[in-house]
Every structure is written in C-alpha cells, then in structure tokens.
Amino acid sequence: MLDMVRHLRGRLMEAQDLLTLAQMNYISVYEDVQQLKRKLFSTTRESIQNQVTLATRQFEVAQSDVTQGELKATIESLREEKCELEKAHKLRMCHLQSQKAKPRSRTMSDSVSLCRQASLRLQRRLSDSLKSMESWYEPRLVALLRRRQLGEEALRRTKEQSADLKTQLGPLREDVRILDTQRASLEKRMVLMETERQNNAKNQKERVEKLKGTLDVLEEEFETQRKSKSILQDIKEGLSRELLFLRGNDDGAADSQILSK
User: Per the database entry, which stretches of residues form a coiled coil (predicted)?
Assistant: First the structure.
C-alpha cells in the first residue's frame, strides 16, 4: 500500500516536471516568436522607408529630366537666335561691302560706321547674354545632374536592399510558421498533460481516500483485537488466580489428611 502511494507520488512529480518543462519551452518559443515579430516589423518599417526614399528619388530624377530638357531647349533656342543674328550680320556686312565700290557720300560712310557699331554692340550683347545664361544655368544643370546621379545610386541601393529584405523575409516567415506549429503542438501537449495531471490527481485522491478507509478499518480491527487481547488477558489472569486458589485448597486438604493420620 505504501509502495503504491510512493509510486503515485513519483508519477505526480514526473507529470509536474514535464509540465514545468513544457511551460519553459512555451516561454522560450514565445520569446523567439516575439523577437522575430519585432525583427519583421523593423524590416518592414525599413522597407517602407526605402520605398518612400525611392519614390522621392524617382520624383527628383523626373524633375531633373524635365528641368534639363527645358534648359537644353532654352540654350538651343538662344544658339539658333545667335546663328540667325550672325547670318543677318554677315548679310548686312556683305551688302555694305558691295556698296564700297560705288561712289558714296559722307552720309553713307557715317551710316556704314553706325551700322558696324550697332552690329558690334548687338554681337557683344548677344555674347554677354549667352555667357550670363550659361553662367546661371550651368551650375544648376551640374547640380541637377549630380542629384540625378545620386538618385540613380540611391535607387540602385534601394533595389538591392529591397531584394535582400525579400530574401531575408522568406526564411523569417518560415521560422515564424515553424514556431507557430511548435507553439500549437506545445499548447496541445500542455492541455493533454494538464488533463492527465488532473486525472492522476483525481485517481490519487480516490486512492488516498480508499487507503484512509482501509487504514480506518485496520485501526478498528486493531482496536478490536487489542480489546479482545485485553479481555483474554483478564480472563487468563482470572483463571490463573482461580487455579492458584484451587491449588492452594488442594494443598491444604492434603496437609489435613497427613496430620489426621
């Protein structure tokens, strides 16, 4: 009976140890899942930030293309205008040179001189205007080209990071799936162990109650036997006294017979 109690206690301790181990495993798996979720959240946030940066860079590149196109169109228009003015100037000079062979008055000479001066002034103005525009547009164009290069480089890095993140995201999802499966298995195992523990506790309680009942019966039987033994002892002592008394009477009668003889 005591061996059965010790066996049940051993089974109960084993069940409690298994339950504790399952709880520790569940806590470890839960912490791993939380860590993976935090890592996944951080990765997703970085991916979103990279997408925003990518969109910004793409917009800047588009603006750079538009501005560069406008600048090229303006410069080309100025160059065409300069070419037309140079052609007009050359035609005017040819016309004036053709007039040299003809007799001319002082007034005509003055007009030619004025035309030459006006043509030189116009040429200088055009040259200064072109240089001014080049000095104004060139730094901006260089800056836009630099921003475009930076945008393209950032776009390339962002694409590489996105590819790396997608590559890392696959194993992370697989790890999360495996951990979820393990967690579900552990939860199911914990439920089964808890049910077994409750059943074992119930069976142990029933056995303990049965053992207590048996012990009470044994104690009652022991008390009955003890009382019976006490009664038998009293009877034995009474019989012994009576026997001694009878023996004493027999010895007295024998002595009387001897004395009478």
Answer: 201-228
Q: How many CB atoms lie within 10 A of CB 4?
A: 13
Domain range for residue 214? 2-255
6 within a domain of the structure (yes/no)? yes
Grouping H, G, I as helix, E, B as strand and the rest as coil, residue 76 is helix
Q: Which of 38, 30, 17 is nearest to 184 (CA)?
A: 30
Residue 261 lies in a domain: no
Q: What is the pLDDT of residues 37-61, one digit of tens each?
A: 777 777 777 777 767 777 776 676 6
Half-sphere exposure of 236 (CA within 13 A, CB side): 6
- Whether residue 17 lies inside any domain: the answer is yes
pLDDT of residue 107: 52
151-203 tens-digit pLDDT:
778 778 777 877 776 787 777 778 778 877 877 887 787 788 788 878 888 88
The whole-angstrom separation of Cα 143 and Cα 81 is: 27
